[in-house]
């Protein structure tokens, strides 16, 4: 069990301490569930009324909210960011593997750095390079000539095809596939002729990829995921996609091939993005966005119809279906005027 004095946490998190610094903190919890010995956080003023019934030993909050709390506190500018760092202090997630399992199949040509761990039944093919402190979970497959940088972790049953490059300090969740063939075919009189996909997947440093996501290898050039990118579960990243540094992609997003997305973008869940175009830096696409054309100006973009009662939606859909007809009638009236 973790245990920190509150003043230790204040120093570690660069927070201003109010109250008893010798309080022992053993965990993090929400305001509703926190008990004595735990610390919570207030990141939204609309929840200030919950402080009255909060049983936490301490609260992370801003200077503006301290008047609503009589107990110990860590005062910061961004409580949610501090919560993220605080949660890391109390993280109990186990490692994907420890040591090298006897049932792991490792080709003699593999180069292992210091303190590498490989789980049961993992398969590491020829000429793979695993950097220092890499952790490869049970049942993973690492294809020929692949390089994985120092400190990267792969959870169970991740498949990384041949010739891929994964940077340092990456985290890849279970069931993800990196380097599968892109969807490349030519049509010969109704028959599909496969185009071999000979590019790679190149992933930068400090990248996190959720469970059951697929990142296809490039057809000729490489699929590239920049530094600090985060990708949620069950996303499809097609061949030759390029994602810029520190972009975030929420769950269920589908990206078509040869798409370039800039840096510091936010792609909302279940969005679908067309290929062979570019999205500039600092673009936000809200959830279920359908992006069919390039975006050249930073900002927030949305599409789709928000949920309505069925009767209302049917009227909306009917209007949409008659837009062309209404437009023609409007133009005719304009000509008469």
Please tally the β strands and state the result.
38
CATH architecture of the largest domain: 3 Solenoid
Radius of gyration: 26 Å
**Which secondary-structure class do the elements indicate?**
alpha/beta
Distance between termini? 80 Å
CATH H level of the largest domain: which superfamily? Hexapeptide repeat proteins
The top-level CATH class of the largest domain is: Mainly Beta
Mean pLDDT: 97
- Total number of distinct structural domains: 3
Q: State the shape.
A: flat
Quote the beta fraction: 25-35%
Number of helices: 4
What is the topology, as strand order, of the major beta sheet?
A: 8-11-14-17-20-25-28-31-34-37
Which bin fits the share of residues in helices?
A: 10-25%
CATH fold-level label of the largest domain: UDP N-Acetylglucosamine Acyltransferase, domain 1
Describe the protein's architecture and organization.
This protein is of the alpha/beta class and 337 residues long. The chain has 3 domains: 4-89, Udp-n-acetylmuramoylalanyl-d-glutamate--2,6- Diaminopimelate Ligase, Chain: A, domain 1 (3-Layer(aba) Sandwich); 105-301, Hexapeptide repeat proteins (UDP N-Acetylglucosamine Acyltransferase, domain 1, 3 Solenoid), CATH 2.160.10.10; 311-337. The protein has 4 helices and 38 strands. The strands form 6 sheets. A 10-stranded parallel sheet has the order 8-11-14-17-20-25-28-31-34-37, with no helix packed on it. A 10-stranded parallel sheet has the order 10-13-16-19-24-27-30-33-36-38, with no helix packed on it. The longest helix has 14 residues, at 323-336. It is flat and about 75 Å long. The termini are far apart. The model has no long low-confidence stretch (mean pLDDT 97).
